[in-house]
Write a structure and sequence with these properties.
With 327 residues, this protein is of the alpha+beta class. 57% of the residues lie in helices and 12% in strands. This is histidine kinase.
Length: 327
């Protein structure tokens, strides 16, 4: 069984999973990163405008503060800001906005639930001036009403379009590669794959030739040694029957027996080589081992007559092998 990343399909699935993960993470990161950046920029703007209206540590002049607020409300670059000056009890003193709920000190977020006219989302900064007065400045974080409600759909459609295009490209790529491989397997075009296949075929042919040559080495050695060894055996046998060789007849007989053993060994090597080359397979026949085992107790019937000898034969299933009577 192939490993998941060793096939074209497995690589495509792994790439697609990684691509989907990165695309979703990039979409979410872009969406929330944009929101946090807008909030940070709006907070920086309203803090700067609050410092212009009421510089930290400066003595508060109510009339001058009110005039600066009216001037800021009439200017083009600050006319979109919401301004409210109220006392510690929440009573409005000046400004162009009203709040229904009590606002905490510092930065906070606004939404449509706060019922502020022409405001769907924003940020507000409430600053305590001298313990008696409080200044609230707010600005919108949405350039268009309900823009942030539609923004997730925009990200979803954009990411979905990218995913569809990449998925279609992967499927088309897989189809083209599979078709190309199939065409090359059936016809071949003389390209790099064909040259590589030819090189592999040549290498395999060379390996097969070398293996055959190595396999013939014992056969050649046996052929070369059989004839001189047979001559030596015959010479020893002839010397053994000479009258003057009677003192060393036993030694000559032992040497002749050793020569016979070597001749039998070389004959066995030649027989093995001929069987491996399938030159003598015609003499092979099918031998039923279960029938042979069934006859073995009858052939060994004299043995159980001796004490402490018992013969049993158990046949689990029929079996056979190829064998020959030649050796």
């Amino acid at each position: 069984m192939k490993a998941p990343l060793q096939s074209l399909r497995g690589l495509m699935i792994a790439f697609l999973a990684l691509f989907l993960t990165v695309t979703v993470a990039a979409g979410l990161g872009s969406y929330f990163g944009t929101l946090s950046m807008i909030v940070a920029l709006v907070d920086a703007r309203i803090r700067a405008e609050a410092d212009v209206l009421a510089p930290p540590g400066a003595r508060i002049d109510l009339r001058a503060l009110t005039q600066r607020m009216e001037t800021m409300a009439r200017q083009r670059d600050t006319g979109d800001l919401g301004l409210l000056l109220f006392d510690a009890r929440g009573r409005r003193i000046a400004g162009n906005a009203r709040f229904r709920c009590e606002l905490p000190l510092g930065f906070s977020s606004l939404s449509g639930r706060d019922a502020i006219e022409d405001l769907s989302a924003g940020r507000v900064l409430v600053r305590d001036l001298d313990g008696r007065l409080r200044l609230a400045i707010f600005a919108e974080t949405e350039p268009i009403d309900h823009y942030f409600a539609v923004r997730p759909e925009i990200h979803l459609v954009g990411s979905g379009a990218i995913i569809v295009v990449v998925l279609a490209g992967l499927l088309l790529f897989r189809r083209l590669v599979a078709r190309r491989i199939d065409e090359m397997c059936r016809t071949g075009d003389g390209g790099a794959f064909d040259r590589q296949a030819a090189a592999f075929n040549a290498m395999l042919d060379r390996i097969g030739t070398l293996v055959a040559e190595i396999r013939n080495v014992p056969n050649d050695i046996s052929h070369e040694l059989c004839t001189p060894l047979a001559r030596l055996r015959n010479e020893l046998a002839a010397i053994e029957h000479r009258p003057d060789a009677i003192p060393v007849a036993s030694a000559l007989h032992a040497a002749t027996a050793q020569a016979d053993a070597l001749l039998e060994m070389f004959s066995a090597l030649l027989r093995i080589a001929s069987i491996e080359s399938r030159a003598s397979r015609e003499a092979f026949a099918l031998l039923r081992l279960d029938q042979l085992a069934a006859r073995w107790p009858r052939w060994s019937s004299p043995l159980p007559r001796k004490p402490r000898i018992a013969l049993t034969c158990a046949l689990r299933q029929p079996s056979s092998m190829s064998a020959t009577g030649r050796c």
